[in-house]
Amino acid sequence: MKATTSSGRDWSVQPPYLHEPYKATVLRSPRNPLVPVMDGLSSLAGPVFGHGSVEPGDADLTRVSGSVAEAIGQRIHVAGRVLDEDGRGVANTLVEIWQANAAGRYFHNVDRHDAPLDPNFVGAGRCLTDANGAYRFTTIHPGAYPWRNHPNAWRPSHIHLSLFGRLFSSRLVTQMYFPGDPLLPLDPILGGVPEHARHLLISRFSSELTEEGIALGYEFDIVLRGRRETPMEQR
Amino acid sequence: MTQTPSQTVGPFFSVGLISPGGNVLVTPETSGERIRIEGTVFDGAGHRVNDAVVEVWQADARGQYRQDPHFSGFGRCGTDADGRFCFDTIKPGPADAPAGVRGAPHVNVIVFARGMLVHAFTRIYFSDDRLDDDSLLGTIAAARRGTLVATRTESATGAVYSWDVHLQGEHETVFFDA
Questions:
Q1: Chain B CB within 8 Å of residue A107 CB
Q2: In terms of CB atoms within 10 Å, which of A214, B29, B65, B110 comes out highest?
Q3: Total-model pTM
Q4: CATH number of B14-166
């Protein structure tokens, strides 16, 4: 008999709850040790989203649905694969993204950054991975923006991603960064990730994904906690 | 392959994650007792957290996941200006755990927030159920067990379960290494 279990969170690459340079973690970090779960929570299958949850055009952020007008900014393709820890593609899983516009402003009433909104850019997209776990979005290069964490603090350009995978425990929310951004070494959010693992959040420029005359290409693979099949002990 | 590291949802998650009705799990065809689950997210200073996301994943009225075609079992709610969230759902049946252990009815919860670099796993149990025999609750120190139990009250529109999340502090919610 085989049991499906999850591999657990790899705390050698995951950030801790408390990372003092990112000030908001100070009062929002649980201080008690996490309680181990023995009753199968980590092997519980997660929610499944069908094709009905994604509309055609949802993966193209450069146009507001039903409009011909285009967002302002450097057009980019962001593509890659969603994989499990054994390197197998995770098929038909929902990928949700959101981001600032080219000027570094979010379409959100709490964002008070004095930079222009773009009426043709909402900054949200979604898609399902294909049978091989591949996904692709077309969007614009997000701008950097200031925040109040420390004096003269600026977030590097980034795209937020939300993923589910096969298990309830494979849920992941993360951020994708861009290669060569001078703000990366200064960012306390990326800096919460152990140094040896930070490169995993930085996309790669890709000539193959770059579309002639249309858009630059960036490749970003995402590895979710795996589904491991292990022999079950006989009791 | 190495897991991709987690990052915070940040303060602007509603652009991509929140859509109307995302916290309503029921349709008229869903089987089971209609309930509302509501609560507030607090930080370690007791301040309300107005930029958290609470996600729920639960079994149907018979205790099974993904079996009732009229019940997805998944819901998502961003906290409002007062740190509040709510879900319109059904009371789950006794848990259909993969290992074959039937626990007390519960709702699995993930909490995200600005200021949380990794999300937190927790659970909601129900105050009117028999909780003594639940294998998971039994492993938790009695003084902290109550942080996982929602309190039932009756309202004109049905049962309401109140359950708050304390990210830190004296009443810190029990979070799991799931």
A1: yes
A2: B65
A3: 0.95
A4: 2.60.130.10
